[in-house]
Design brief:
The protein has 353 residues and is α/β, with parallel strands linked by helices. It has a single domain, classed as 3-Layer(aba) Sandwich (Arginase, Chain A). It has 11 helices and 8 strands. It has an 8-stranded parallel β-sheet, sandwiched between helices. α3 packs antiparallel against α4. The radius of gyration is 19 Å and the shape is globular. The two termini are 34 Å apart. The structure holds manganese (II) ion. The site of manganese (II) ion has 6 residues, from loops.
């Protein structure tokens, strides 16, 4: 890709011309060296449980974002701060496909009451390589004074980014996690770095993470619910049913969200699994669950973090599905742009209203 300087990028985006094929996120072609926020695509789905396709999401979101108008209600001209998305690392996609085939063998063996140790080792080793690769990419960007974010891929993708933040931040940070699932399993189907284990691994491996605050959760095991309880004041969960019950009794969305946002420290990492939204907005995600947040509720939740004066230090968007009509990626690209705007506004790089 031929890159633009930030000045050229702003000029082109403000003309509002239709993007060209091969353009990057929101039709941009910004040189990553000139960006304040760098998006790292992670085409990975080695351990998906149900529907495949999320490894394609970074590229689908990139293309779909060409439809998006770059103005935003809350966040004023996010692109002026410089947003660059790296090109997708095809070697990761290859490794993901290979690992996915082995993972299917592991799951088949489990269904027959057996274990396929060789295939399991392959998947776990591949996941370690993935984590190291994301860590290295994120660490380099953060070290260069940039903000980094991950575009998955399944929800195992952001571990390397969260670790890189944990290793580079002076202060502790909290995690705001939106998902239909706790993702607190100690390994799932034998996969240590499963999409269903991301926050078990984060809480264990990332020292600087002060606490985990979850929203939208509505499909979970006793093991996970107990683990959340055991975290004590290091964990909080607004179950989807509890949220709906409070809204039904007449509380405002702000009244419902505020006690949870207040548990977060000054620095916050946002982890958004698209299946935290109603399936209407993510019909082809890997493990859709009825219920969940409306699009506008997610939008407002993110804005409440910014409005509270907290700083967003990084984020991920995962599990966006692959659909023929492009709807999943359309929603995904809009959530991603909101996240970019929120991070940049919270860091004083752009204005917000
Ligand atoms: Mn998840």
């Amino acid at each position: 890709m031929s890159y633009r300087t930030l000045k050229e990028e702003i000029e082109v985006l403000e003309l509002g011309l239709p993007p060209q094929e091969g353009d990057g996120f929101i039709g941009g072609r910004l040189d990553p060296n000139e960006a304040s926020l760098v998006l790292i695509p992670v085409p990975w789905e080695a351990t998906v449980s149900f529907g495949e396709g999320t490894a394609q999401a970074p590229d689908l979101i990139r293309t779909s974002s060409h439809q998006l108008d770059v103005e935003n209600y809350h966040y004023i001209k996010p692109y002026t701060a410089g947003i660059a998305m790296f090109e997708t690392d095809k070697s990761l996609l290859k490794l993901s496909n290979k690992a996915r085939k082995k993972a299917v063998k592991v799951i088949e063996a489990l269904e027959n009451g057996e274990t396929n140790k060789k295939a399991l080792k392959f998947v776990n080793d591949a996941s370690k390589d993935l984590n190291a690769s994301v860590y290295e990419k994120a660490f380099t960007q953060i070290n260069n004074g940039k903000f980094a974010a991950v575009v998955g891929g399944d929800h195992s993708c952001p571990l390397g980014l969260i670790k890189a933040l944990s290793d580079t931040q002076n202060e502790e940070f909290g995690i705001l996690h939106v998902d239909a699932h706790h993702d607190l399993r100690k390994a799932y189907e034998g996969f240590k770095y499963s999409h269903a284990s991301i926050f078990y691994n984060v809480m264990k491996e990332c020292d600087k993470v002060s606490n985990l605050v979850q929203f939208g959760i509505r499909d979970y095991s006793a093991e996970e619910a107990n683990r959340m309880k055991k975290y004590g004041n290091k964990g909080a969960c607004l179950y989807d049913t509890a949220m709906q019950a409070q809204l039904a009794s007449g509380k405002s969305l702000e009244e419902v969200f505020t006690p949870y946002i207040e548990q977060l420290p000054n620095n916050v990492y946002l982890s958004i699994d698209i299946d935290g939204l109603e399936p209407l907005n993510c019909p082809n995600t890997g493990t859709p669950v009825p219920g969940g947040l409306r699009y506008g509720e997610l939008e407002h939740l993110i804005f409440m973090v910014v409005k509270s004066g907290r700083k967003i230090i990084g984020f991920d968007l995962c599990e966006v599905g692959n659909s023929e009509d492009g709807w999943d990626a359309n929603v995904g690209s809009r959530v991603l742009y909101q996240l970019c705007g929120a991070l940049l506004a919270s860091q004083g790089k752009i204005e917000y209203k």
